[in-house]
Design brief:
This protein is mostly helical. It has helices at residues 34-40, 45-72, 77-95, 133-143, 146-155, 164-175, 201-206, 211-224, 236-241, 263-272; strands at 99-100, 113-116, 123-126, 245-246, 252-253. Helix 2 packs across helix 5 (146-155) and helix 3 packs across helix 4.
């Protein structure tokens, strides 16, 4: 899991560089056990033997095909993929301005339908924004270089014989994120994607570096338990109530943090600043 060559998530940030693997082994099929074939495939041994020979050739060629595919695709493959994704997004937005009389007129996506205007025989194409992954994948398959599609299937471990649904699931997992979509996605009060950082008090308790970390940890625990938003440790009585004591600078210190990782570094800074 820690090797980029074996973990596609790590390959987003780390290179999978060619290298020699100590004591590495590659399975090689040398031949067919005719006696076993005759025993278990009586009456069809010649057909089975021919099939096995074809499989041997396919296995032998598969590794070289994968290497050729890897080298034929540009190093900035992910950048190219995202560019095509932007192009397809724009095509979907533009599609809603396309005039139509029937569903077949909305050729940009097989899932699109023609929405007729009231009392008219014409209308506008309708994009299924609530389930647009299929449209996106159709567009990507048309817009991408075929070698790139092959590379993505290889990279995502999607067999060439796999259904479109499997390829779609792999695409959704690796190339999309939960969000509002469609022309109204950015209107007021629709909502935005974003990150919210939350402290895990169990984690912070196990990774305290100095007294300041411990004081912030105690404040966070108090907030989580519905207590005060702020604890004033500069108040000596408050400091002592939490098991600390004031030093010469009026800072609250805790004996349990005397050997914390950052403690010695902070003491060094103090000494240098005298």
């Amino acid at each position: 899991e820690s090797e980029p060559c074996c973990n596609w998530e790590l390959r987003q940030y780390q290179c999978c560089a060619p290298k020699d693997i100590a004591n590495g082994e590659i399975d090689i099929v040398l031949g067919v056990n005719r006696a076993q074939v005759s025993t278990y495939c009586e009456g069809h041994s010649s057909e089975v033997e021919k099939l096995l020979q074809d499989v041997m050739v396919a296995i032998d060629q598969s590794s070289s095909c994968a290497e050729e595919l890897e080298s034929s695709v540009s190093a900035n493959v992910w950048d190219e993929t995202w560019k095509v994704k932007d192009v397809c997004h724009q095509k979907m937005y533009d599609a809603e301005s396309m005039a139509c009389e029937k569903d077949e007129d909305c050729s940009h996506c097989s899932q699109s339908t023609c929405r007729l205007e009231a009392g008219s025989t014409t209308g506008k194409c309708q994009v299924p924004w609530d389930d647009n992954e299929g449209c996106m994948l159709e567009c990507l398959s048309k817009e991408m270089d075929p070698e790139l599609v092959r590379y993505l299937r290889e990279e995502w471990q999607v067999p060439a014989t796999a259904s479109d649904e499997i390829f779609r699931d792999a695409f959704v997992e690796r190339m999309t994120e939960p969000a509002c979509s469609g022309p109204r996605a950015w209107e007021e009060d629709i909502g935005r994607n974003g990150y919210e950082w939350q402290c895990n008090t169990t984690c912070t308790a196990n990774h305290l570096c100095d007294d300041w970390d411990y004081m912030e940890h105690l404040r966070q625990v108090a907030r989580d338990e519905g207590g005060p938003d702020w604890i004033e440790f500069w108040d000596e009585a408050v400091c002592e109530s939490y098991g600390g004591k004031h030093n010469n600078w009026g800072q609250c210190e805790f004996d349990s943090l005397a050997t914390a990782p950052c403690k010695q570094e902070n003491e060094c800074y103090k000494e240098c600043q005298k």
